[in-house]
């Protein structure tokens, strides 16, 4: 689930940011990353390890990652599915559970009392004063958390 997108699609900018954070299995051990929305409404991300890319939403509502080539879509049940085999589901407690049958990875994301996003692997994401999402840890927020 490392570097896979988020689940809450309440607001598109945060949605794309969350998606970027969780979308890239290639970045399983990603460095600290920053996500921000540009003037065109796309999410730009840059990581300390040199990884960078753009998350763009197409006319069908799919989100494409320019760096990894992964495409994210929402299925009829409301689950977020990536072209890499990763799936994100929101459970009854409001947590986002990510899994990838191909790799066996599993990560659960939740929002803490301070509004930070926390993953079961210890990754923490906070929004700074500039509205950028900054994450520290191995995982990126799932697309399910986008718009959160």
- Give the rounded overall mean pLDDT: 77
What is the 3D shape?
globular
One letter per element, helices H and strands E, the order comes to EHEEEEEEEEEEEE
The rounded Rg comes to: 13 Å
Specify the structural class.
mainly beta
Number of alpha- plus pi-helical segments? 1
Biggest β-sheet description: 12 strands, antiparallel, barrel
Q: How many separate domains? A: 1
Enumerate the spans where pLDDT stays under 50 for 5 or more consecutive residues: 1-30
Can you walk through the features of this model?
- The protein is mainly β.
- The chain has one domain.
- 7% of the residues lie in helices and 37% in strands.
- It is built from one helix and 13 strands.
- The protein has a twelve-stranded antiparallel beta barrel with strand order 2-3-4-5-6-7-8-9-10-11-12-13.
- The chain is globular and about 35 Å long.
- The N terminus is likely disordered.
Question: Notable features of this structure?
Answer:
mainly beta, 12-stranded antiparallel β-barrel, disordered N terminus
Give a quick summary of the entry:
By secondary structure, this protein is mainly beta. The protein contains 1 helix and 13 strands.
């Amino acid at each position: 689930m490392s570097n896979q997108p988020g689940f809450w699609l309440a607001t598109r900018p945060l949605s794309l940011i969350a998606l970027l954070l969780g979308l890239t299995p290639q970045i399983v051990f990603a460095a600290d990353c920053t996500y921000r929305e540009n003037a065109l409404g796309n999410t730009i991300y840059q990581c300390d390890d040199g990884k960078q890319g753009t998350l763009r939403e197409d006319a069908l509502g799919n989100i494409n990652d320019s760096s990894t080539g992964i495409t994210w879509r929402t299925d009829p049940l409301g689950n977020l599915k990536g072209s890499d085999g990763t799936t994100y589901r929101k459970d009854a407690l409001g947590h986002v559970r990510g899994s990838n049958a191909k790799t066996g990875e599993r990560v659960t994301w939740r929002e803490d009392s301070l509004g930070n996003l926390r993953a079961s692997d210890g990754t923490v994401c906070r929004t700074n004063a500039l509205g950028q999402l900054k994450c520290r840890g191995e995982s990126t927020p799932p697309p399910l958390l986008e718009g959160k």
